[in-house]
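[step 3/7] inverse_fold.run input=structure_tokens len=147
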């Protein structure tokens, strides 16, 4: 993971330096642009790699710093598996509309867990956990234990 982060930081640095070489700008612009873009880039990178999903004794929590979504078991209508997410949704925290508002925490391609909620603004919550089948099972067991 650290090798990937170093590669990405090096890539963004090379792109910024190449852009400055193609279109010369005053020195102060480069001095301000480099730390600002690096900070934004590191923030996005840290947020993405800190994404986690937890099942507690009363709720499911999805976290991608600084965002957090907590769904109490009472608000869960059903839990389903999604075979494949569309390619166009990208990675990170995503919002879209498909039969109601959908909030998704996307960290990978492939199958995911879909949590349908009762009476919430975002009716559907999609979580791309490492093992969706096992996560769904554990979530259903935790919900049964609570009932």
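[step 3/7] decode complete -> sequence:
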């Amino acid at each position: 993971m650290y090798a990937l982060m170093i590669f990405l930081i090096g890539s963004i640095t090379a792109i910024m330096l190449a852009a400055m070489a193609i279109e010369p700008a005053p020195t102060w612009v480069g001095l301000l642009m480099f730390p600002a873009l690096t900070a934004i880039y590191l923030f996005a990178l840290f947020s993405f790699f800190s994404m986690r999903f937890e099942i507690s004794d009363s709720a499911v929590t999805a976290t991608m710093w600084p965002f957090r979504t907590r769904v109490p078991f009472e608000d869960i209508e059903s839990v389903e598996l999604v075979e494949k997410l569309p390619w166009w949704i990208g990675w990170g925290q995503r919002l879209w509309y498909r039969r109601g508002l959908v909030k998704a925490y996307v960290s990978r391609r492939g199958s995911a867990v879909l949590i349908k909620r009762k009476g919430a603004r975002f009716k559907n919550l999609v979580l791309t956990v490492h093992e969706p089948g096992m996560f769904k099972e554990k979530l259903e067991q935790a919900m049964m234990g609570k009932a």
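[step 4/7] annotate
Helices lie at 2-22, 27-49, 132-146.
The chain has a mean pLDDT of 81.
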